[in-house]
Amino acid sequence: EFHDKIEPMLETLENLSSRLRMPPLIPAEVDKIRECISDNKSATVELEKLQPSFEALKRRGEELIGRSQGADKDLAAKEIQDKLDQMVFFWEDIKARAEEREIKFLDVLELAEKFWYDMAALLTTIRDTQDIVHDLESPGIDPSIIKQQVEAAETIKEETDGLHEELEFIRILGADLIFACGETEKPEVKKSIDELNNAWESLNKTWKERLEK
């Protein structure tokens, strides 16, 4: 009865352990990372469901070993002990790997949340600033008024120059996110950074044309 029950348990644990040994494919999008975290928790849930059977098999195996005597029985006891050791090894391996994966997913999730939030916020700021520059009044006729307009445009330019540091920081965040997720997610992240770069170049071009005018 012990051997009939422990064999399926070993097979189940070995399959789960093998699944967790494969390096995880980590997406760059926040919602998809959360899905990965949820899927990873399913391994822990499976262990919780198996816990009563695991404990019962462990107790039964130890009882059988304790009752064995003589050379033949020692051999049987060794076989039981080997299977118990395998079961415990797979059990602990699954727990450790599931925990390791969760830590990895949570680290990438934090990075992804910051990247996408900061990227969207800066993109909105750049586009709003471009609209402000574009909507500046046409140059006046009086030199003193034109001078005031130039000063106003240069003030806006100073403010936008301050955004460049944020842009560089987001570029670094994007590179870190690609490194954490892998090359498969590079196109999606790069596309967003390119969109940010294009908006920045467009803003500078609009400001330069406005000031020259």
TrEMBL record:
<protein>
    <submittedName>
        <fullName>Microtubule-actin crosslinking factor 1</fullName>
    </submittedName>
</protein>
<dbReference type="InterPro" id="IPR002017">
    <property type="entry name" value="Spectrin_repeat"/>
</dbReference>
<keyword id="KW-0009">Actin-binding</keyword>
<dbReference type="InterPro" id="IPR018159">
    <property type="entry name" value="Spectrin/alpha-actinin"/>
</dbReference>
<dbReference type="GO" id="GO:0003779">
    <property type="term" value="F:actin binding"/>
</dbReference>
<keyword id="KW-0677">Repeat</keyword>
<dbReference type="Pfam" id="PF00435">
    <property type="entry name" value="Spectrin"/>
</dbReference>
